[in-house]
Amino acid sequence: MVSENETIVAISTPPGRGGIGIVRFSGPRALEIALPLLKMRAELEHARARFAEIVDPEKRSKLDEAVVTYFEGPNSYTGEDIVEIAAHGSPVILDLLVRQSLSGGARLARPGEFTERAFLSGRIDLTQAEAVRDLIESQTLYQARVAAQQMGGSLSRRIKPIKQNLVELIAVLEAGIDFADDDVDVMADAEIVARIDSVIGPLAELARTFEHGRIVHSGLGLAIVGRPNVGKSSLFNRLVEWDRAIVTAIPGTTRDLVTEKVAIGGIPIELVDTAGLREATDEAESIGIQKSREALADADLVLVVLDASTETWNEEDDLISSVAGRCAIIVYNKSDLESRSSSHHMVTEDNGMRAIRTSALTGEGIEVLRSAILDLVRNSGTGGEDDMLTSVRHHEAVTAALKRLEEAREAISRMTPHEMLMLDLYAALRQVDSLTGETTPDDILNLIFSTFCIGK
Ligand code: GDP
Ligand code: ZN
Fold first, then answer.
1. Does any ligand 1 atom lie closer than 6 A to the CB of residue 128?
2. Which atom of ligand 1 is nearest to the CA of 337?
């Protein structure tokens, strides 16, 4: 089946110039198409790198030098024959190689098609394929570690015993239904309920890991809000350690939202510097304020910045009460300007929010702020688990499976015939199987692989 595939080709290194550029082939004709592009002294052997010259098709002279690696199917990434030509990273030469192989009968690979073939040939399951993409897209080392675990099949291993229990239950009930006339013992209802619970338990536990897994995968949004001129942009810059926001002494200049990604504790955090939340004096500013309100509403974490050098924060009362109950930190900035001890003003601790003094000018308190943000990040999920659900797709499948299992459980208490119960159990099984790709519909598969980069 696999051997009938077309041979695909793609530049697998990122676009543009680089030290090395790799053109990759996969398919039954990989060798046949790649070899004419090269001049080699020794034959290609499985999993061995060979030195080669890339030949100019017109002048018949040497165009570049390359290292060529061959993997003989089925012991390759895709399960098919693979040839990788690592040349110098000149887009001109890489393009030439691709064009020549297209006229030699190869087809340009779609995004993710190499990994799709690895999946279709059964070398990896769908959770592993998705983990390949996550690993490539990871922005922090922590994310990469989680993806690497799943690439090794950690999620599949966790799902396996759950599925096993479900399949056994279905098998027993099927037998009971088929032989109902022949006096075969149908399982007692209490036993069925117990068995369903033994599937629900670990599945629900898995579903809960998404609380943290979602954050690991997508990161958190942190909005910096406060009145104009309190030092939001300066704090933003301190946290980013890179001058992106415009810092000026004129109130109300950060009209648009400025965002920047940072990593705190391995979690990507999107910092949003908002315009000062106060009455706008012109239209551009009022748009900025509107955007700030939206950013505040969307944010997972909020820094409410106050000016520590002023006497009272009456104007901020509304803002502070509006973030009550959310993951927020009150920041008393400009601590360097504080004339006298105004600790009696720091009344915000009693809404359960942490209050921290900083000076964006001197850097005082910035490290404390960072670790306070890290605490909030850690608190926003259970954390610590290696094989957590990080993908929305996986979470939806697990949740849907749980729903059908709960329905099955309820059906028993209503004395519903077992045939009806089976519908729920099979539906739950299909959801569990869709995690690893056993029952994932083609259009969903296409959707998943289309999010990969070209050449992977
Ligand atoms: P924003 O409007 O809240 O974004 O405030 P900015 O970050 O633009 O800062 C407004 C002014 O306050 C600028 O002149 C900053 O240099 C100054 N500023 C910001 N943070 C501090 C601080 O911690 N101490 C002092 N002394 N000045 C600060
Ligand atoms: Zn600003």
1. no
2. 26
Same domain, 419 and 370: no
Q: Which residues constitute the domain of residue 246?
A: 216-379
- Estimate the crossing angle of helix 392-413 against helix 189-208, to 10 degrees: 160
Q: How far apart are CA 388 and CA 17, in angstroms?
A: 37
Phi-psi label, residue 60: left if phi above 0, alpha if psi -120 to 50, beta otherwise: left
Whether ligand 1 lies within 6 angstroms of the CB of 246 is answered as no
Binding residues for Mg(2+): 233, 254
Same domain, 298 and 408: no
Looking from the CA of residue 230, the nearest atom of ligand 1 is 3
168 and 255 belong to one structural domain: no
Distance (angstroms) between ligand 2 centre and the Cα of 250 equals 9
Mutation probe of ligand 1 site: the residue of 225, 234, 255 with most atoms within 8 A of C-beta: 234
CATH (domain of 337): 3.40.50.300
Query: Quick check: CB of 228 below 6 Å from ligand 1?
Result: yes
Q: Which two tokens stand for residue 160?
A: 């396996």
Please check whether residues 242 and 283 belong to one and the same domain.
Answer: yes
CA of 392 to the centre of ligand 1 (A): 40
Q: Which of 173, 166, 51, 183 is nearest to 422 (CA)?
A: 173
The whole-model pTM stands at: 0.79
Q: State how far the Cα of 136 lies from the Cα of 154, in Å rounded to an integer.
A: 18
Q: 182 burial class (0-12, 13-18, 19+ CB within 10 angstroms)?
A: exposed
Predicted complex ipTM exceeds 0.90: yes
Joined tokens for residue 259 = 């965002």
Q: Which atom of ligand 1 is nearest to the CA of 334?
A: 23
Same domain, 281 and 392: no
Annotated binding residues: 24, 84, 123, 229-234, 248-254, 273-276, 456
Residues 141-170 pLDDT 10s: 889 999 999 999 999 999 999 999 999 999
Total structural domains within the chain? 3
Task: Work out the pLDDT band at 188, boundaries 50, 70, 90.
Answer: confident
Q: Mean per-residue pLDDT for 347-371?
A: 84
Residue 230 Cβ contacting ligand 1 at under 6 Å: yes
Region label for 231, one of left (φ > 0), alpha (ψ between -120 and 50) or beta (otherwise): left
